[in-house]
Design brief:
alpha/beta; 5-stranded parallel beta sheet; disordered N terminus
C-alpha cells in the first residue's frame, strides 16, 4: 500500500504535525492577522506591497487551524503536495478594493480583500512557490465562490511569476450559489449580493464576466456568470439541493430590518413558513414541497449545464443529497455515488489531468433521480444516508408528531410541542413554589437550612 511521505515542503503557516499511513493528515496553524472584523479594518487599508508578514500589523493576531486529510490510496498524486492555506477574511471572497472606507460604529472598514490575496501569493512565492510545477487551487462554500471569482487572476499572476509551472487546475466544492428567487418568488439573495457588491467595490476585471461595465455588474458575483469564463481545468462538486442554498436562499426571507439589521447570523435561513421546516428536515416536507424542490433541482442542473462546464479538462459531480461542503466531509466524499461512481473516485479521475499533455475529455456525473413526492424517505439516492438520523430532542419529537398526528402542518406541530413544553415548564415552576412555601412559610428550624431561613426572612421583609 502506498504511503505518503512524512514532510511537506511548503506551508503558509506553522506545521503542527503529520501522520503517515493509509491517510495523511496535515494540520497547519496560521497566525496571520487576516481574519476577523476588528483586525481586518487595520490590515486591509495597507498597500501590502512589501509582502504579507512585513505589512500585516493589525491590533491582534487571530490563530486559525486547518486540517486536510489526503487519502493516500486514492489521491497518491497529492501525497507530495505542499499546502497553502489562506484564511477567509474580507466578506467579499477576496475581491474587495474600496477606494473610500466605510464607517461602522466609529471604525473604518476598508474591504480590500484583493490586496490581501495578492500579498498572500507574494508570501507564498518567497516560501517556495517559485519552484512548483503543478498547482491546485481549491475552496469550499464561500471559498468555492472565491475560487470562481479569482481563479483567472491567480492563474495570470502565477503564469507571470512562476516560470516553471506546467499546469494549474481548480476545484470549487459547494460554491455554486445560484441567482434564483426564493420560494415566495422574491429575489432576496440577489438583493443581498447586490449589497455585498456595493459594499466591497470589487475588482473583478479578470473574471471576464459578460456583465462587466454594465449596471448589472453585481451579477458577476454569481457562479453561473463566472464559470463560462474560467480558463483552466475546473472541477465542481455541487449538490442539486445544497443544504445552505435550500435553507438560506430558497427558504429564506431577507433579515429583519434589512439592510439595517443588527443580527450577525449567516442569513435568515429557513424563515419562510412551512418550506422552512421542510428545508431543515426533509422528512417534514409535504408532497407539494417535494414537487417544488424537484423543480428547483431540475433548474439547478440546467443552470449549471448552461455554463458550458462540460468541456475538455473539466469535471462535474452533481448529486441529489441534501448536503453542503461535500468534499471536506468523509461521510459524503467517500460514500455518495452518482451512476455507481463515488465522489472521490470522480475527483481522482479528474486529477489525472495533471499527468497528461492533452486535457482529458469532460467528466460529468449528474444524478438523474428525483426526490420521492409520494412517501418517505424523500431522498432518491440511497447513498445519501438518512438526512434525519442526527435529529434528536425537540426536532425528533416534532418529526414524530408531524408524521403520526399532524401530517398536514409541520408549523402547527412545532406550535403544539412548544406549547406542551411551556405548560410543563409552568407546572415545574408551580411545584417549586409549592415546595418552597411548604418548607418555609412557617419554617421549623429542624426542616429548613439557615440559608432557606435567611431567604424567607428577606422575602418577607421586601413584601
Amino acid at each position: 500500500m502506498t504511503r505518503c511521505p512524512t514532510e511537506p515542503s511548503v506551508s503558509m503557516g506553522a506545521q503542527l504535525g503529520t501522520t503517515t499511513g493509509t491517510e495523511r493528515v496535515i494540520c497547519y496553524k496560521s497566525t496571520w492577522k487576516v481574519a476577523g472584523g476588528a483586525t481586518m479594518k487595520k490590515i486591509a487599508s495597507r498597500e501590502l506591497t512589501e509582502g504579507l508578514e512585513a505589512r500585516l500589523t493589525g491590533r491582534a493576531k487571530l490563530t486559525t487551524t486547518v486540517c486536510l486529510m489526503i487519502p493516500a490510496t486514492r489521491f497518491q498524486l497529492l501525497c507530495h503536495a505542499s499546502v497553502v492555506y489562506i484564511p477567509y477574511c474580507d466578506g467579499g471572497s477576496f475581491t474587495g478594493d474600496r477606494t473610500v472606507s466605510l464607517q461602522w460604529k466609529g471604525n473604518d472598514l476598508h474591504f480590500k480583500g484583493r490586496r490581501i490575496l495578492i500579498a498572500a501569493l507574494e508570501s507564498a512565492l518567497s516560501r517556495g512557490l517559485m519552484n512548483v510545477p503543478y498547482i491546485l487551487i481549491s475552496g469550499d462554500s464561500a471559498g468555492g465562490l472565491a475560487v470562481e471569482l479569482n481563479v483567472n487572476l491567480i492563474n495570470s499572476w502565477i503564469q507571470s511569476n512562476v516560470p516553471g509551472v506546467k499546469r494549474i487546475m481548480a476545484i470549487s466544492s459547494s460554491g455554486f450559489f445560484p441567482n434564483v428567487n426564493n420560494a415566495a418568488g422574491f429575489p432576496q439573495y440577489a438583493t443581498l449580493m447586490q449589497n455585498v457588491f456595493s459594499m466591497n467595490e470589487p475588482d473583478i476585471t479578470a473574471t471576464n464576466c459578460s456583465y462587466l461595465g454594465t449596471d448589472d455588474e453585481w451579477r458577476c458575483m454569481f457562479a453561473q456568470n463566472l464559470i463560462p469564463h474560467i480558463t483552466i481545468p475546473f472541477f465542481l462538486q455541487q449538490s442539486q439541493v445544497d443544504a445552505w442554498v435550500l435553507s438560506c436562499i430558497y427558504a429564506a426571507y431577507l433579515p429583519y430590518n434589512f439592510p439595517n439589521e443588527t443580527s450577525s447570523t449567516n442569513g435568515n435561513c429557513s424563515s419562510i413558513p412551512n418550506i422552512g421546516a421542510c428545508a431543515d428536515n426533509t422528512e417534514m416536507c409535504t408532497d407539494a414541497h417535494v414537487e417544488s424542490i424537484n423543480t428547483f433541482m431540475e433548474n439547478m442542473k440546467l443552470t449549471v449545464s448552461s455554463t458550458g462546464i462540460e468541456k475538455a479538462g473539466n469535471g462535474l459531480f452533481m448529486h441529489t443529497c441534501k448536503s453542503h461542503s461535500g468534499l471536506i466531509k468523509t461521510e459524503w466524499y467517500k460514500h455518495i455515488k452518482v451512476n455507481g461512481v463515488v465522489m472521490d473516485e470522480a475527483l481522482r479521475e479528474w486529477l489525472k489531468n495533471f499527468r497528461t499533455d492533452e486535457l482529458l475529455p469532460s467528466m460529468s456525473f449528474i444524478d438523474p433521480c428525483k426526490w420521492n413526492a409520494a412517501g418517505t424517505p424523500r431522498n432518491c439516492n440511497p447513498t445519501c444516508g438518512d438526512d434525519n438520523k442526527k435529529k434528536s430532542g425537540i426536532d425528533k419529537i416534532i418529526h414524530d408528531i408531524y408524521h403520526n398526528d399532524l401530517d398536514a402542518n409541520p408549523d402547527l406541530a412545532k406550535g403544539v410541542v412548544v406549547a406542551l413544553f411551556g405548560l410543563l415548564f409552568m407546572f415545574l415552576v408551580l411545584i417549586v413554589i409549592i415546595v418552597v412555601c411548604c418548607c418555609c412559610k412557617s419554617p421549623p428550624e429542624e426542616h429548613c437550612s439557615s440559608n432557606e431561613m435567611a431567604g424567607y426572612a428577606t422575602f418577607r421583609n421586601l413584601s
